[in-house]
Amino acid sequence: MQIRLVKPPDLDLLREIDGTIESSQYLHVERSGEGLAGLSWKLHERPMRERLVRSNPLDDDRRFIARQVASGAEEGLALMAEHEDVPVALLVATTDPAAGILRVHEVRVDFDHRREGLGLALIYQAISHARDSDLRAVAAETTTDNWPAAMLLTKCGFDLAGLDERRRTNHDLVKEAVTLFWYAALE
């Protein structure tokens, strides 16, 4: 197993990484209060009504970001793990100098290579890269129904920094797919 920088010729191979999301738990968001004075949210770990198995192909936006970083057109980090010359994991992040953060856009580990520490290794390399670049934090996003991603970020020292209950639709809270914002402070 080898982790290395993504090069432009690698980009077409990244689609082959099976990023299927599989989970039996989620973070339930409970909203209470109204207006600015009493508005609050609570998160609770809960079992899903039925086991989630969702295809998670690498979308065009994330492929574009990977291409920009790999070609040097955008500042950031694009790493892939290979096993026998086949890509099995990917991390794509961009630097946001104005905010002083490294923003992780994608972390995926092929279904057949999960639970081997690849996700941890990629996140730790992103944190190391951010420290070396004198950034103040690493940021990431997940959804409440992506329990494995939330647990990975928690394990890597990320703190939950906020949520957006309407990021994808006006009914995310009902659909149990609220966007969560995570930060790992480096200072």
Q: What are the defining features of this structure?
A:
187 residues; alpha+beta; Aminopeptidase; seven-stranded mixed sheet; two-stranded antiparallel sheet; 24% helix; globular
Description:
24% of the residues lie in helices and 42% in strands. The chain has 187 residues and is an alpha+beta fold. The protein has a single domain (2-33, 41-185), classed as Aminopeptidase. The protein has a seven-stranded mixed sheet, sandwiched between helices. A two-stranded antiparallel ribbon has the order 2-3. A hairpin with a 2-residue loop joins strand 4 and strand 5 (86-96). The chain is globular, with a radius of gyration of 17 Å. The two termini are 32 Å apart.
Structural class: alpha+beta
Q: How many helices?
A: 5
CATH-defined fold name: Aminopeptidase
SSE order in H/E notation?
EEHEHEEEHEHEHE
Give the averaged pLDDT, no decimals: 89
Q: Please provide the count of β strands.
A: 9
Please outline the major beta sheet. Answer: 7 strands, mixed
- CATH-defined architecture: 3-Layer(aba) Sandwich
Find the CATH superfamily. Gcn5-related N-acetyltransferase (GNAT)
Give the termini distance in whole angstroms: 32 Å
Instruction: Kindly state the percentage of residues in helix.
Output: 10-25%
List low-pLDDT spans: 170-174
General form: globular
CATH class, please? Alpha Beta
Radius of gyration: 17 Å
Proportion in β-strands: 35-45%
Structural domains: how many: 1
